[in-house]
Here is the input.
Amino acid sequence: MKKLIMAILKSIAVPAMAQAKPATCLLEEDGKTLYKGKCNFNAEKGGSFWLSHPNIEKELDLESIAVWIDYKDHATVNVAKVSGGAIEWGKFVRSQKQKACWVNDWYKICAWAQ
Here is the structure.
């Protein structure tokens, strides 16, 4: 299953990179900042999106973070690792305080346009 998810992530991420827009991203785990800085925002249908950047790859071993909208203000997040494989970070809800952020019990993912 992980190989299938990785193949899907890579097949979609490559064409989407051409449409990437510069953004500022924040990734937190358990309230601690994992990454804050430049990123590429890749919009998909229905509000879903991808985040990627060489700095994220270097610092976190993450090739991309995919936020798949399940329904209004609810999403599933998958990450593709540079070293191979994909991990589901789980179900997220859109923050009511910070509309650019998606949160669950462990993670916070934010992306602001530059």
Notes: The chain has one domain: 2-113. Helices lie at 2-17, 54-60. The radius of gyration is 13 Å.
